[in-house]
Design brief:
single chain
Length: about 500
């Protein structure tokens, strides 16, 4: 192993490193701020995938429309990541496992097991509040916009993502309040989506993944690093089996679809389709447990050792990672590269998995691994601009759906007249309907620019004005429920020996 590394080190001597200061390189290898920058980039690509579903659905498949013989530029590997929202969501789960495990693992390695357990307890408590409160606020905001009729332009348009996920206003204010409660509940119910904010489908899985991280670390925190790593590897592989059997089969069964919907959901959200169930949960455990493994790996001396030859190792790893993340969920046989990956997956991967999400998850894991061993990538992702983007990542994820379905739709279709368009039903048959046709490229580009500016400004305002309020609520609940500051108030009398 050391001989191979020395050989790679000698081969890369001709490559000039920007780290002339070894102290700076060491600092970069110890800093975990890169995770925030990577999370920010992932949020931007999730937004871009939803915009693609509005006006460039052809990019979802790797090749080609009926009258074309070569793929478009953004249908090709790596460039098509603008349409691969699922791969970037997988990155959220990996980073969740990585970040949530990093501090407890550092404490465990230092022999401070009690401090690690305390950190786990506080993190699990705060994580719940920091997910539930912002999601509820974003749902109330979108519900208000719905009742004001601001989604109607998008709902009448020919933009797929807009008309699919733009809910109808409620029939009365009494019904509206009931629909709001159902929407708030839907975010945290397996198998259905929040009709007012479809991107919130991932939050229950993020919360589930966080609880997996906390429970798993509770089991292994007393183990040595070697046995902790072996145990987490078993958990990651085992999760393919149990999460599919206990979650996927029930919640992805179309026959159970309508029984799981809250009242009025189909009225608000008429395009919900039992043939298109919520995403697979089988990879939640795999990604978060793998994130823990990467956190453990980052605390060893191996990344620093490999950093000497990272200019040679990181580029091919990044390229392979991005190609795997580019694997499409739809029509993989339409392009040679994705067809070969599909054949490989059918031979090597469990058959019950969604190969699109599986390859996206494997690629995201390789991407994080490539960053961990590269001081250059770490330093780039920890830059002030990307650090700011990382701070805005969760507000951007929560708010972009409201902005896209309202302001973006108005920029795209204001002044347009209804026209008859053809669309394909779930059974493949053609149907006609009257919709607002998509505008030209110049207007789409201007609309995207306006949407980007407004999403960024709204996310910045949310992070500066609204997030601190959620922090204060979480702190108040922590002090109140954990008896901090005022002593513990016992519900039942305590026996004194």
């Amino acid at each position: 192993m050391s001989a191979t590394i020395d050989l790679l080190h000698n081969a890369k001597r001709a490559i000039k490193s920007p780290f002339t200061d070894h102290a700076l390189q060491k600092s970069a290898m110890q800093d975990s701020a890169w995770a925030d920058g990577l999370r920010g980039i992932a949020s931007v690509f999730v937004v871009s995938s939803h915009l693609v579903l509005c006006f460039a659905r052809r990019l979802v498949v790797p090749c080609c429309s009926a009258d074309e013989h070569t793929p478009a530029l953004f249908q090709r590997p790596i460039l098509r990541l603008v349409a691969q929202g699922q791969a970037w969501v997988a990155l959220f789960f990996i980073l969740s496992g990585f970040v949530n495990a990093l501090k407890p693992l550092k404490l465990a390695r230092a022999g401070q097991v009690e401090a690690a357990l305390s950190s786990l307890s506080l993190s699990s408590f705060r994580r719940t509040f920091r997910l539930v409160l912002p999601a509820a606020a974003a749902t109330v905001l979108s519900w208000s916009v719905t009742q004001l009729g601001a989604y109607e332009m998008g709902r009448r348009s020919d933009a797929f993502w807009l008309y699919t996920y733009a809910p109808l206003p409620s029939g009365s204010w009494g019904t509206a309040l009931e629909d709001l409660l159902n929407g708030l509940r839907a975010t945290w119910t397996f198998g259905i989506v929040n009709p007012y904010d479809q991107p919130q489908w991932a939050l229950i899985y993020l919360l589930q993944g966080s609880m997996m991280v906390f429970c798993a670390l509770l089991i292994v925190v007393n183990l040595t690093p070697l046995y902790r790593t072996l145990t987490m590897g078993i958990f990651a592989l085992w999760s393919f089996d149990w999460s599919y059997k206990h979650f996927d089969r029930e919640y992805r069964d179309p026959s159970n679809f309508h029984n799981r919907l809250p009242p009025h959901t189909l009225i608000l959200f008429p395009t919900l389709n039992p043939a298109n169930p919520p995403p697979s949960t089988a990879l939640v455990g795999f990604t978060v447990f793998s994130g823990i493994l990467l956190a453990e790996f980052s605390l060893t001396t191996t990344p620093a050792l490999l950093s000497r030859c990272s200019p040679l190792l990181t580029p091919p790893l990044l390229t392979l990672a991005l190609v795997l993340m580019s694997f499409p969920s739809d029509a993989p046989l339409s392009a040679p590269w994705s067809s070969h990956l599909l054949t490989l997956g059918q031979r090597l991967l469990p058959p019950q998995l969604d190969f699109g999400r599986t390859y996206g998850s494997l690629g995201a894991l390789l991407l994080v691994l490539a960053i961990i061993i590269s001081p250059h990538a770490r330093a780039a992702l920890a830059s002030p601009a990307l650090a700011l983007l990382g701070r805005l990542s969760f507000p951007l994820y929560l708010l972009h759906g409201t902005v896209v379905r309202s302001l973006f739709a108005w920029c795209m279709f204001a002044g347009a007249e209804l026209a008859v368009v053809e669309e394909r039903n779930a059974d493949g048959s053609l149907a006609t309907s009257e919709r607002l046709p998509l505008p030209g490229g110049a207007r789409i580009a201007a609309s995207v620019l306006v949407c980007a500016v407004v999403c960024g400004a709204a996310s910045y305002a949310w992070a500066g004005r609204v997030e601190p309020w959620f922090g204060r609520c979480t702190k108040w609940a922590e002090e109140r429920m954990m008896g901090k500051g005022g002593g513990r108030r016992e519900v039942l009398p305590v026996r004194k020996e």
